[in-house]
């Protein structure tokens, strides 16, 4: 069975609560933008593409139930407002902001068309949100296949299997399915070209230990979980052929924001002469920003560092 972070059918949206993984596979129904926003903030669903898809589909569910209006202007204002709330939920990942721009634009365009009704505006927004789900899955398969072939050509021109190190979770759980960086690893495995995977635990929220390790075991892909602080040693001594990570946002000059720890992985990879790749769909690209310095970096609650499963592990009164 395919791992699904998002289950959607017209009028119904469910997410796999990733805070409960790997112990429990529990789906939670989201019937409104407000519920989706809370789930995204709490990281029950996370990963740049999945955040955007859940946000947009929660709006689709709300609109199908007749939310917004009465009147075209008030419906368009409602759509814009709901999208603003969703964009603010996790600001670094740009996918939601890009999707919001597109949805707000089609809502406004349709409302201005002669003969438009509330129903046609709702249908246009819902239709576009549903297309995004299909497109993300297609994009991920392409990223996986193209990325795997590129990586084999570049890192192993004489043939032979490769070993890949990855960070955070960029798999089926972070997307509509298959994944981006983890999609490349999945494709290498499907091609019979993957020797081994190293996945980092990804402190403080352990997306690597809880989610990537879960996906790799689930798919029977050969893999070892390492602490974040073992990455340099793994690169020095364990034959890592390439590092492949995902992206929350790629800006015009190529600067990339991703899970904390990605920067040091890039430096360590450079030190060891190991190719470092960012695997991301165009929905993660933000060409409006020139450099990474302009990216708003999300600040998370300090408990994510000081506590483990609700139990304080850090010294009291330490500055954070
Ligand atoms: C395909 S997911 C791309 C990125 O969003 C991913 O690399 C990442 O850093 C996820 O972070 P998260 O904080 O778990 O949302």
UniProtKB/TrEMBL annotation:
Name used for this protein in its record: Methylthioribose-1-phosphate isomerase
Keyword Amino-acid biosynthesis: yes
Organism for this UniProt entry: Cricetulus griseus (Chinese hamster)
Pathway assignment: Amino-acid biosynthesis; L-methionine biosynthesis via salvage pathway; L-methionine from S-methyl-5-thio-alpha-D-ribose 1-phosphate: step 1/6
Primary gene name: Mri1
Pfam family, one: IF-2B
Keywords in alphabetical order: Amino-acid biosynthesis, Cytoplasm, Isomerase, Methionine biosynthesis, Nucleus
CC annotations in GO: cytoplasm; nucleus
Family affiliation: Belongs to the eIF-2B alpha/beta/delta subunits family. MtnA subfamily.
Catalytic residues (UniProt): 248 (proton donor)
Matching InterPro entries: IF-2B-related (IPR000649), IF-M1Pi (IPR005251), IF_2B-like_C (IPR042529), Initiation_fac_2B_a/b/d (IPR011559), M1Pi_N (IPR027363), NagB/RpiA_transferase-like (IPR037171)
Function, as annotated: Catalyzes the interconversion of methylthioribose-1-phosphate (MTR-1-P) into methylthioribulose-1-phosphate (MTRu-1-P). Acts as a component of the translation initiation factor 2B (eIF2B) complex, which catalyzes the exchange of GDP for GTP on eukaryotic initiation factor 2 (eIF2) gamma subunit. Its guanine nucleotide exchange factor activity is repressed when bound to eIF2 complex phosphorylated on the alpha subunit, thereby limiting the amount of methionyl-initiator methionine tRNA available to the ribosome and consequently global translation is repressed.
Entry keyword RNA-binding: no
GO MF annotation: an example: S-methyl-5-thioribose-1-phosphate isomerase activity
Catalytically driven reaction(s): 5-(methylsulfanyl)-alpha-D-ribose 1-phosphate = 5-(methylsulfanyl)-D-ribulose 1-phosphate
Domain of life: Eukaryota
Biological process according to GO: L-methionine salvage from methylthioadenosine
Annotated site residue numbers, Transition state stabilizer: 168
Subcellular location: Cytoplasm; Nucleus
EC number(s) stated in the UniProt entry for this protein: 5.3.1.23
């Amino acid at each position: 069975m395919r791992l699904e972070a998002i289950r959607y059918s017209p009028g119904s949206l469910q997410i796999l609560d990733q805070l409960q993984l790997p112990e429990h596979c529990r789906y939670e129904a989201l019937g409104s933008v407000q519920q989706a926003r809370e789930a995204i903030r709490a990281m029950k669903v996370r990963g740049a593409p999945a955040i955007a898809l859940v946000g947009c589909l929660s709006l689709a569910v709300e609109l199908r139930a007749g939310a917004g209006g009465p009147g075209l202007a008030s419906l368009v204002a409602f759509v814009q407002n709901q999208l603003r709330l969703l964009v603010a939920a996790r600001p670094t990942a740009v996918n939601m902001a890009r999707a919001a721009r597109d949805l707000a634009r089609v809502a406004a365009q349709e409302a201005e068309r002669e003969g438009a009704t509330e129903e046609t505006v709702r249908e246009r927004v819902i239709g576009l949100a549903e297309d995004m789900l299909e497109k993300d899955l297609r994009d991920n398969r392409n990223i996986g296949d193209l990325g795997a072939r590129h990586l084999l050509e570049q890192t192993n021109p004489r043939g032979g299997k490769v070993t890949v190190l990855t960070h955070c979770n960029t798999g089926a759980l972070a997307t509509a399915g298959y994944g981006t960086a983890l999609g490349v690893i999945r494709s290498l495995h499907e091609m019979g070209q993957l020797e081994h995977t190293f996945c980092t635990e990804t402190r403080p929220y352990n997306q690597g230990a809880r989610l990537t390790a879960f996906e790799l075991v689930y798919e029977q892909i050969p893999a070892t979980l390492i602490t974040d602080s073992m990455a340099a040693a793994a690169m020095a001594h364990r034959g890592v052929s390439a590092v492949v990570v995902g992206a929350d946002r790629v800006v015009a000059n190529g600067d990339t924001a991703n899970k904390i720890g990605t920067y040091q992985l890039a430096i360590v990879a450079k030190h060891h002469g190991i190719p470092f790749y960012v695997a991301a769909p165009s929905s993660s690209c933000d060409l409006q920003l020139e450099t990474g310095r302009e990216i708003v970096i999300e600040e998370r609650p300090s408990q994510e560092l000081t506590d483990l499963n609700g139990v304080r592990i850090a010294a009291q009164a330490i500055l954070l």
